[in-house]
Amino acid sequence: MATAPKEAANTIALEEIHTEGLEPPKGQKTFTVEEAVETIGFGRFHIALFLIMGSTVVAEAMEIMLIAVVSPLIRCEWQLQDWQVALVTTMVFFGYMVFSIVLGLLADRYGRWKILLLSFLWGAYFSLLTSFAPSYIWFVFLRTMVGGGVSGHAQGLIIKTEFLPTKYRGYMLPLSQVFWLAGSLLIIGLASVVNPTIGWRWLIRIASIPGIILIMVFKFIPESARYNVSTGNNAAALATLQRIAKMNRATMPEGALQEPPKERRGRFKDLLHPKYLRTTLQIWIIWLGIAFAYYGVILASAELLERDLGCTSRTPPSENAGPVSEESRSPCYCHPFGPSAYRTMIISTAGEIALNPLNILGINFLGRRLSLCITMGCTALFFLLLNVCTSSAGMTGFLFMLRALVSANFNTIYIYTAEVYPTTMRALGMGTSGSLCRVGAMVAPFISQVLMSASFLGALCLFSSVCVVCAISAFTLPIETKGRALQQVK
Q1: Is the pTM of this model over 0.85?
Q2: Does the structure show a pLDDT above 50 at 164?
Q3: Band of the pLDDT at 288, cuts 50, 70, 90?
């Protein structure tokens, strides 16, 4: 907004500026948004955007991870069976799946900024209502609506991707995992203090505070310049780019901002165009499998801690062992987390950042496809290692490595998906991928919280097999996006 007549003009005002598709005079120099982003380079604007958008990831992580630390308590309060506890998580991701496609379509048509703001208002509202849920049915419904709101947070990643110069995307986007880790650790830490004292309802209320605070800083986030150009709103895109250049103390390219040939935006059939059909189908498989593995690890960790499904519980009971209590056999088994359980969750969650340096190196030097193939293969191996009879410390170590690997998988596929599609269908591509991702997340609770109790090895083999399929799909992806400029049109 630096070069506009009124410097105080905000993003919303810029968004309403429209051009009539005027062509630059013949012979005049022109430049594209991609060229402007590369010329301006990385600077203070990107650091501020990284911190604000990263904070949205903190809020998202707290809302998603909340179920893992609340499940034992609602099981006790409403005397729930295994399948009822699993259904809570499944319905959260059902809401995410349904609204992810809808909000992706709307973001490609009406802008990333508006949908991101709407999703935060929606999520914060229903999250607060959840804390007053009078029954299990109401709790499930309200958390489903929270899942729908959280699905729009992916627009924050798209905004970051569309403003970052090519050579920085492979470094800055994986660092966003730090914010997810911060949100996960924060909710576990809060749960260890709040749950035993004032209860899970207050935990939900406290967890909604970051999302409410972030709504207040959304006016500092600009609409994507790439989106504005794709809609013919060149004046708004130019004003945003000039503002970024001023913040970064850089110069703009010479000439006029050139509008690309206009295309219809946000059409589902574009994802299945022959140019992208194979890529789209393989990306959907990978997203589904990664989410299945990621949330499978999280929920399996909680089940291992809550029910002691580790090595000792899988060995036949000795003849001298005392009688097994009726409570532990009950389908409504009630055992809230203790301090040691929270400590193990914190250690394993910290693993999410352990491989970040190697993940960044792999993404930038080996490429997106090969890096993802390697981490998915290692994930399959470590799932099987959970069946090895080991000590509590050994189990914690395996969970630590699994969290590190599944986190690296998510880093890579997020970057690849945001880079492979052009601006006119990028939000839709992320939205549909996010929906398929939630199909995997919806199935994971029934494997981690139901099947694992009946057949520990069977559940692990299923998780491992899915990871192998994803590794093969990643290796055979037809497009490598390493060093590739973001495409503006199809």
Answers
A1: no
A2: yes
A3: very high
SS3 per-residue string spanning the chain: CCCCCCCCCCHHHHHCCCCCCCCCCCCCCEECHHHHHHHHCCCHHHHHHHHHHHHHHHHHHHHHHHHHHHHHHHHHHHCCCHHHHHHHHHHHHHHHHHHHHHHHHHHHHHCHHHHHHHHHHHHHHHHHHHCCCCCHHHHHHHHHHHHHHHHHHHHHHHHHHHHCCHHHHHHHHHHCHHHHHHHHHHHHHHHHHHCCCCCHHHHHHHHCHHHHHHHCCHHHCCCCHHHHHHCCCHHHHHHHHHHHHHHHCCCCCCCEECCCCCCCCCCHHHHCCCCCHHHHHHHHHHHHHHHHHHHHHHHHHHHHHHHCCCCHHHCCCCCCCCCCCHHHHCCCCCCCCCHHHHHHHHHHHHHHHCCHHHHHHHHHHHCHHHHHHHHHHHHHHHHHHCCCCCCHHHHHHHHHHHHHHHHHHHHHHHHHHHHHCCHHHHHHHHHHHHHHHHHHHHHHHHHHHHHHHHCHHHHHHHHHHHHHHHHHHHHCCCCCCCCCCCCCCC
Let me know if 254 is exposed, middle or buried by CB neighbors in 10 A (0-12, 13-18, 19+).
exposed
Residue 383: other Cβ atoms inside 10 A: 27
∠ CA 465-471-473, nearest 5°, is: 105
Is the pLDDT confidence value at 303 over 70?
Answer: no
Distances (CA, A) of 90 to 96, 162, 184, 447: 10, 32, 19, 11
**In the predicted model, is pLDDT for residue 344 greater than 90?**
no
Instruction: Report phi then psi at 325, rounded to 5.
Output: -70, 150
Structure tokens at 289: 């499998």
pLDDT tens digits along 318-343: 444 444 444 444 444 566 777 877 88
> What is the predicted pLDDT for the residue at 313?
46
- For 232, 288, 433, the CA distances from 428, given in Å and listed in that order, are 19, 16, 8
Per-residue pLDDT tens over the stretch 68-114: 889 888 988 898 887 888 888 888 888 888 887 788 788 878 888 88
Among candidate residues 465, 411, 147, the one with its CA nearest the CA of residue 293:
465
Contact call for residues 80 and 74 (beta carbons, < 8 A)? yes
CA distances from 54 to 117, 168, 228 (A): 15, 16, 23
- Find which of 26-35, 415-424, 466-475 is predicted with most confidence, using mean pLDDT: 466-475
Q: pLDDT band for position 44 (50/70/90)? A: very high
